[in-house]
Amino acid sequence: MCVNVTRCRATAALWNVAALAQKRCYQFQLSERTQSVRSAIDVDLAMHSIDTVGAQHFGTNVSDVPPVAPLIEPCFHFTPEQKASAGQQPYISDLVTSKSARGEFFYGIEITGQSKGKPTCVDFNGFLPVLPTFISIVWLPQYWNVLPIERVETLQLIRNLEPHIPAMPHLSLFRQTKERIDEFLALNFRNMLAVRGDKMDEDQVYRNSYQLVEHARRVRGVNISIAVAGHPQGYPNLKSGPQDITENIEILKKKIDNGADFIITQLCYSPEIIVEYLRCVRNAGIVTPIMVGVVVPDSFKSYALIEMISKISLPAEARAEVERYQNDDAKAKSYFVQLAVRTIQQVLDANLGVHGIQFYTLNRFGSVQDVLCELRKLGILKETPPTDACGDA
Questions:
Q1: CA 139 to CA 155: how far, in whole Å?
Q2: I need a labelling partner for 175 at 20 to 30 A (CA). Which of 46, 54, 121, 387 fits?
Q3: Is 159 helix (H, G, I), strand (E, B) or coil?
Q4: CA-to-CA separations, 365 to 142, 298, 360, in angstroms, rounded
């Protein structure tokens, strides 16, 4: 018999607990996409959002004046295999579901659309021999009134990616009207990550991502794969003080009940907190596939910027240790690489049916590729045929 969710409630106040010793009662249930959303459709019918980066970090402003939306020149370099197999890609949720059911480790990457004012460059050859299962692109607040909507830079990039790798645009609720959301859905992307975002406006049509999930499912039916966010440490950008894990999971259940296909957790630097959160989610009866979000800063400066944006910190003792590396980027990077590897190992060892990792790259791929190298050495990330060594990232 599964431990009742009230056990999770008892540990919610500090949200910083060690993993509970308990019986394994989770059994992954694989179902077809159409089965997973049928109930939502019958009643007629939400990383992760880092959209709070905002203007000061990307050189643009959240303005009421519709910006001129130019065509951009994408900067992606695809592998020979990606080029050879170009065409319609699978739904991301189908890939996540099938890999999770098989117990196969996999990963995705998240990027932002710009780097230093130019479209982000990604060379997928750098991720070989095991490519990411998919790629997603963050939605920033300033996209809310770009006209026409298909000119939003991230959506232009997604169009370029789609023939070569499953690609998922994010959509945030900030300042969105129903008409604007319908314009997005009419673009017929096969995948989306529905997020509330950390900015709110009184006139936006929805205030919670589960409403966006319901709307998207009603409009697109089974013809879209929908991901939503999970929050191991609650909502530090929206609430202050201790947070209620039971309320948190009830919101997550609404997203699933309204038609979400899978969950990607927000960043967290504590493996123990992540595993405890996953246990509470499973104990609440949520059997939906979950991917764990991992960020791998490549310097203390990078970590400090992420901390400022996300309001999520290392545990105090660990942060004090990393502070010693303020002037040694190599040591700071090594620390976060090893933390990411340890986090992934503990998630897998928890035996909760979670086998996918989403790397929040912030367009810095070297530290992520170092983690992938370590995972290959450990036999976690398997390749066919295997190679003998990892190259320099």
A1: 9
A2: 121
A3: helix
A4: 25, 9, 9
